[in-house]
Amino acid sequence: MSLLAVRVGAGVLALLALIALRGKRWAYLAFVVLGLLYFPAQTHFRVHAPKCEQLLPTMHVLVLSLHNYAYIALFAGFYWMSWVQFRRSDARGIWALLATLLVGVLVEIAEGMTMTGRGHCRVRDLVPDAAGALGAALLLAVWSRLRRKPAYVRLVRPHPAAAPHAAAPTSRAVVPPRGVVPPRPPPPPPRGLPGLYVPPPPDFSPGPSPVMPSADIAPTHEVAPRSVMAARRAVVQRLQAILGRFREMLHRLWMTIRRRRRAVVVGGILLALGGAGAFVILSLPAPAPVVTQPTEAPPPEPPPPPPRPLQSEAEGYYEPSYKFTVSDRRFTRLTLRPQPFVTFSRTGTRDEVGCADARISPAAVHLRCEFERVGIVVTIEGQFPSRSVTSRLDAPVLNALVTVTNTRGETLFRARESFYWHEPD
Question: Which residues are CB-neighbours of 25 under 8 A, at least 6 positions away?
Fold first, then answer.
């Protein structure tokens, strides 16, 4: 979903929330429906059967869930909207709390069907929803208590005038005229069971026993039916009163439905569509898990062959094709590694002359070796035909110009030689 569509949807929901706070039922229902459709719209209505996690949260997870302040604030606002909608109900707080929790459950199911929002359908995600609803309920209860007017200034709606009642007898005592003796007040009602008390005669003569009933008292078989009939009559009157109240309640409900028949019809249709959609979605088979076959990794490339050693780096000695003689010394060998020097031999002796000036590269070589005892200087300027080491003994590996001069600069020998390589002794 594009950013523009998200902003437009958020603006529409905010507008519906403001209208619902004014008490409009249609805005409240539209807010709920559009809010639930927001989740499948993010995935272009590609939904699947939700798999909800029904594990109860531990205390640690419960504390962490209460850090989701965005959902706490969102469901606190939704509780406020629901509290406004149930303003005509006596238990508006309970109904608003139930509606908020129901919407929270529907939001979790929608997130589990589309893998959006928090991405999971879990019971522990209802903790911030319930916390926001309870916090809003507490704040609204305190606000209602503060705004409630005391009883002595509470306004009472005037009721229609009732029929005049008969004047009740005044309780003010009437003072008799002077000279007239007022009659004696009647004795107080007897205590105890009826029929067992007999007032004393005026002359205090012995009268009938209080235990034995007198002959002028009615028998018990005539009193019992009267009490039973009175009890039956009271039960019938009580049932009639309850039936009248129930009939009045049904009449009020019918009148409410008639006054709000359009809202009732729209709500019934939306409820039926929502139930049918939920049934169809829950009856959908769970998507088969996509098994991705791991692609076989290409075989590793063989490592490149190690570079062949250079001829200029190989240890050994080089023999010239022509072993010349200078100042009674015969030139027999040339060595480059590990230290460059030339070898002169004489009958019974062998002299190794080091080269103070030596520049050796993979392609060329330059040596200047000074034999001070004899007084000659040997200069070698050569190139390698092949840079790699070869094991062939019949192929020259170095072509060089050999120059031998004395200390006065006179040239004693100058020729181009071919050198053959041999492994060290």
Answer: 85, 263
According to DSSP, the β-strands at 349-360 and 364-371 are antiparallel
Cα–Cα distance, 399 to 285 (Å, whole number): 85
Determine the Cα–Cα distance for residues 103 and 31; give it in Å rounded to an integer.
11
With 0-12 / 13-18 / 19 or more C-beta atoms within 10 angstroms meaning exposed / middle / buried, residue 354 is middle
Count of CB atoms within 10 A of residue 275's CB?
A: 10
| pLDDT tens column, 46-92 | 777 777 777 777 787 778 878 888 888 888 888 988 888 888 777 78
Give the integer Cα–Cα distance in Å for 179 and 142.
69
Instruction: For residues 225 and 236, give the distance between their C-alpha atoms in angstroms, rounded to a whole number.
Output: 16
Rounded CA separation 122/107 (Å): 11
DSSP letter string, 368-424:
EEEETTTTEEEEEEEE-S-SB----SSS--EEEEEEEEETTS-EEEEEEEEEEEE--
The pLDDT assigned to 127 comes to 85
According to DSSP, residue 91 is labeled: T
Peptide bond into 177 cis (omega under 30): no
pLDDT of 35-48, one tens digit each?
A: 888 888 877 777 77
* pTM for this entry: 0.37
Q: Are 40 and 47 in contact (CB under 8 A)?
A: yes
Q: Are the C-beta atoms of residues 341 and 332 closer than 8 Å to each other?
A: no
Burial (CB < 10 A; 0-12, 13-18, 19+), residue 355, is: buried
Handedness of CA 4, 8, 9, 10 (dihedral sign): positive
3-state secondary structure of 332: strand
How distant, in Å, are the alpha carbons of 88, 101, 113 from that of 43? 39, 25, 10
Q: How far apart are the first and last CA of the chain?
A: 82
Whole-number average pLDDT of the chain: 77
Rounded Cα distance, 13 and 30, in Å? 9
Contact (Cβ atoms closer than 8 angstroms) between residue 17 and residue 81? yes
Residue pair 320/400 in contact by the 8 Å Cβ criterion: no
d(CA 351, CA 8): 99
Please state, in angstroms and rounded to a whole number, the distance separating the CA atoms of residues 180 and 242: 54
